[in-house]
Amino acid sequence: MQLDAEMGSTMTERFNVAGAMLVKLFGKPADEARVFADRAAKVRDIGVITAMYGSTLFIALSLLASMATAVVYGLGGGLVIHGTFQLGTLVALTALLARLYGPITALSNVQVDVDDRAGRLRPGVRGARPPAAHHRAPGRGGAAARAT
């Protein structure tokens, strides 16, 4: 997340018109491009790894939910055949199981989404500067001219 925020700050500072002019005039554009490419590669690699872990977790939870449903239907079907359960009880158990695993599976993607959004929001918050005070020459309009 910190690396993503640093890359966002670099983009904000150096890729606007003033920053690009400063880099061209006083900086080393090749070094700036290399540093940015390195940071972008690291952010990309971390994003790919995070996405792979997130998708693996989602697949594992989906598989667990599917296997649990199959076990409930298998064992419950046997119990319904032997008269221990009624069919309505089996259907209710599978419905409850689906309601249990639905939110858990949905939560498996929350960490990836939160990290992604927080990393994108931080550069704007950290890089925010107070607006520069605009000074107007006397007699050029503004509040003083409107008051008279």
Brief descriptors of the model:
148 residues; mainly alpha; rod-shaped
Task: Describe the overall structure.
- The protein has 148 residues and is mostly helical.
- It has one domain: ABC transporter transmembrane region fold (Up-down Bundle).
- Helices cover 81% and strands 0% of the residues.
- It is built from six helices and no strands.
- Helix 1 runs antiparallel to helix 3.
- The longest helix is centred in the middle third of the chain and has 53 residues.
- The protein is rod-shaped.
- The two termini are 53 Å apart.
The backbone outline, from C-alpha atoms, is rod-shaped
Radius of gyration: 29 Å
Treating each run of at least 4 consecutive H or I residues as one helix, how many helices? 6
| Spatial gap, N to C terminus | 53 Å
Q: In the CATH classification, which architecture applies?
A: Up-down Bundle
Number of domains: 1
Structural class: mainly alpha
Element order, helices and strands? Answer: HHHHHH
Poorly predicted ranges: 121-137, 141-148
Q: Using DSSP, what is the number of strands? A: 0
Overall pLDDT confidence: 75
> What is the fold named in CATH at topology level?
ABC transporter transmembrane region fold
CATH superfamily: ABC transporter type 1, transmembrane domain
What percent of the residues sit in helical stretches (DSSP H or I)?
A: over 70%
CATH class: Mainly Alpha
For the biggest sheet, the summary is:
none
Short description:
This protein is an all-alpha fold. The protein has helices at 2-14, 17-26, 29-81, 87-107, 110-126, 142-147.
